[in-house]
Amino acid sequence: MSDQHDHESDHEPAHGHGHGHGHGRAEGGRGGIGAVLGRIGHAIAPHSHDTSDKTDSALEASDRGMRVLAVSFAVLMVTAAVQAVIVAASGSVALLGDTLHNFADALTAVPLAIAFSVGRRAADRRFTYGYGRAEDLAGIVIVLLITASAALAGYEAVRRLLDPQEIRAVGWVAAAAVIGFAGNEWVARYRIKVGKEIGSAALVADGLHARTDGFTSLAVLLGAGGAALGFPVVDPVVGLLITIAIGFVLRDAAREIYHRLMDAVDPALVDDAERILATVDGVRRVESVRLRWIGHALHAEVEILVDHDMSVVAAHKVAVEAEHRLIHDLPRLRAATVHTDPDGPDGADHHASLTAHRDP
């Protein structure tokens, strides 16, 4: 196994180091095309114990995500186009709001596709953690698109309340509502299923967004029913209700992106990591666990305490095993850096020179 760092002979016994699989030096005898492919593989999947398998898995996940986006984009654009034709023929504000929302939902595939594509690029000396954060930037674009669709739908609903107009082709409006629900529900199931399988929170969130759009499409049926019963005012009122529903989706999407940008994780993941580390032979105590999402991959930095009488080699072995356990047992974790500190002797402060430099 190759190591990330050279272990200098003047290291104190049992004082560990950051260690991350896949960032080490190429083994002797490995050169030419093999070395280049190896470096590319390590950059894409840094913790792999089998670089080629991990690289293939990462590329396959990105390819699946791109296929989902392409198919769902096509389905939603066709759905919205059909609805737009009926909007022009009927003048339904509720259906207009739903159509605008479906167009916006289809367009969210564009920034996500760009993010998946950019995220495949290997880490370099400027972007040392890679380009996975492109997914978070795509999330900001998605939030802006949802905001625009909500504002336009609300404007049209208020305008129609102030200037009521008769709705035509009520039956077609109802049919368009059903089409909108069917298209969104199919896309929602597809995005959520694949998003969970490849570990893309953004894709899962976009699938939940599509599901919400499906239910707002069903709300258009209320407007059509009101018009059929001689109450055309129901249509703009439903349009306002749809705008409010889009606002709730906007709130949830903005919160999700905010959490990602602030490196928030589910506390249960930290608990799981601590439990995994506690089962590793040689780990006396888990000092700290820090996790963050970079795109749809989870990264970890942990500090563990080991016996102060351990040799550097023995402490390194514990660190490697701790990293190995984390990568295999913590879902979606692709990179882990493990730092070992000596536990003892009593009264010893192995970080005394750093105390003044640490945050209070």
Automatic annotation (TrEMBL):
Record-level Gene Ontology MF annotations: cadmium ion transmembrane transporter activity; ferrous iron transmembrane transporter activity; zinc efflux antiporter activity
Protein name: Cation diffusion facilitator family transporter
Pfam families from the UniProt entry: Cation_efflux, ZT_dimer
Entry similarity comment: Belongs to the cation diffusion facilitator (CDF) transporter (TC 2.A.4) family.
Cellular component GO terms, alphabetical: plasma membrane
TM region positions: 68-93, 137-155, 167-187, 237-254
Domain spans labelled Cation efflux protein cytoplasmic: 267-342
Domain Cation efflux protein transmembrane residue range list: 70-262
Biased composition (Basic and acidic residues): 1-15, 347-360
Region (Disordered): 1-31, 337-360
Membrane topology: Multi-pass membrane protein
One Gene Ontology biological process: intracellular zinc ion homeostasis
Location of the protein in the cell: Cell membrane
Cross-referenced InterPro entries: Cation_efflux, Cation_efflux_CTD, Cation_efflux_CTD_sf, Cation_efflux_TM, Cation_efflux_TMD_sf, CDF_Transporter
Keywords: Cell membrane, Ion transport, Membrane, Transmembrane, Transmembrane helix, Transport
